[in-house]
Structures are given as structure tokens and as C-alpha cells.
Design a protein that fits this description.
Layout (H helix, E strand, L loop, with lengths): L4 E5 L9 H15 L6 H7 L4 H8 L5 H17 L14 H9 L4 E6 L4 H10 L8 E3 L11 H10 L6 E5 L2 H10 L2 E5 L6 H7 L3 E3 L5 H10 L1
Parallel strand pairs: 1-2, 1-4, 2-3, 4-5, 5-6
Helix pairs in contact: 1-4, 3-4, 8-9
């Protein structure tokens, strides 16, 4: 029996557009300490990294005490904020139809590798009724954050799929670098938070311009 293919998706910026929620929550954390807010574009560029690393990048003049306080402020602001709805964190166009197509293919296993915590990812997948498409979930709670390859390597280990039969799909250079370090293929998406030219430079074999292009790009990878 042929080895299955493992298709691993990032979440924020790839499956769902959560940028404005993350920006607002970061701003609330900075406001809580009376620190000048980082620019929204700078915040979006950090999406995908572990929270502490993103905060350190956004406030390099800080110190461990300040960074820890910003982490706590972010978490508290997120929990105390209004309930997130589908409209607040929408799926990208045709996401559901593509996930349905791929997960119906018996030769493919779908997974998620994200900088979100497990609870946050669970809320997102349940909110949009897409949890059933994924067989393996890896989050910030499961190991070092991107671009460290550990969570992707763990997903391969759990599913028994080799790097050559694994594809990471994401919108940031951190996703692409993680895939390269794990020996897997990388497909970038143009609708997220890092521009296509950066994704290509970071190791993307190709960049999808629309969700509906993904099945065809996957076929190309294994037909080359």
C-alpha cells in the first residue's frame, strides 16, 4: 500500500482571516502598560510566531518583566473581549469546499500546524465546523514555535508520513522555513500576512493565488 500524503495547513492567515482581532488584542495589551502601540502592519508580520517571540520583536526595547506583562495583557484582553464570531474571524473564500475535496481523498491526511494555542485552535475549527477534516493538530502548546520544525516533524511521526510526502501550506515565511527545515514541501498562499515574494524566498515551491488552486498545486508537486 502506498504511503499517504500529509497536507498540513497553517490557521491564521491561511484558513481564517484573524488579523484585525490579533491587532486589536495586541493594542489592548500595550494600552494596559501605557506603551505606544506598534503599527498594525508590524503586528500582522509577526502572526504565526509564538506569542512571546512576537511581543519581543514588537517591543525590542523591553525587558523580560515587560514582555511577560504584555503576554499576560494579551491573554487577558483576548479572554475578556467580546465573543469571536464567524464574521469576526471569517474563513477565506472556498476554504470549506477545498478542505472537503481533499479530506474525501483516501490517499490524503489533513492536519494543522499553528502558532495558536490548542484551545484557540479548537474554538476556530469548531466555530466554522471544519474540525472533522483534520486528523492531526499541532499548536503552540505542543512544542517550540515556528520556524522550528518540531511540530511538523511530530505531525509526520504521528501519521507515519515521510517528509517527501508532506506539504506545509501557509501564508508566512515562518511556515515556509519550518517546512524546509523539516524536509517537507512548502506551498505559500497570497491572501495572508506575508507577500508572495517573501514566501518564495523562504522556500515556497509555489504560491497559490486562490484557495481553489491548492488541489492542482498538490498534484503538481507529486507529478514532478
Amino acid at each position: 500500500m502506498a504511503e499517504p500524503k500529509l497536507i498540513v495547513f497553517d490557521c491564521d492567515g491561511t484558513l481564517v482571516d484573524s488579523g484585525h482581532i490579533i491587532v486589536a488584542t495586541m493594542h489592548a495589551a500595550w494600552d494596559g502598560l501605557g506603551i505606544a502601540r506598534p503599527e498594525p502592519d508590524d503586528i500582522r508580520h509577526q502572526i504565526g510566531l509564538p506569542l512571546l517571540q512576537a511581543i519581543r520583536n514588537l517591543h525590542p526595547a523591553g525587558n523580560p518583566g515587560v514582555w511577560d506583562a504584555l503576554v499576560e495583557g494579551y491573554k487577558n484582553a483576548f479572554v475578556s473581549g467580546h465573543e469571536v464570531t464567524r464574521d469576526d474571524e471569517p474563513l477565506y473564500e472556498n476554504c470549506v469546499s477545498v478542505l472537503t475535496e481533499l479530506s474525501a481523498n483516501e490517499t490524503m491526511i489533513l492536519g494543522v500546524a499553528t502558532g495558536k494555542g490548542r484551545r484557540g485552535l479548537g474554538h476556530t475549527l469548531t466555530r466554522h465546523d471544519i474540525a472533522g477534516h483534520f486528523s492531526v493538530l499541532k499548536t503552540a502548546d505542543d512544542g517550540p514555535g515556528k520556524p522550528n520544525p518540531d511540530i511538523l516533524l511530530d505531525a509526520m511521526g504521528e501519521t507515519g508520513v515521510s517528509p517527501l510526502n508532506t506539504v506545509m501550506i501557509g501564508d508566512t515565511i515562518f511556515d515556509m522555513e519550518m517546512a524546509v527545515r523539516a524536509g517537507a514541501h512548502a506551498i505559500g498562499v497570497s491572501w495572508g500576512y506575508h507577500p508572495p515574494e517573501q514566501l518564495t524566498k523562504a522556500g515556497a515551491r509555489t504560491v497559490a493565488g486562490h484557495f481553489t488552486e491548492i488541489p492542482g498545486l498538490l498534484k503538481q508537486i507529486w507529478s514532478d
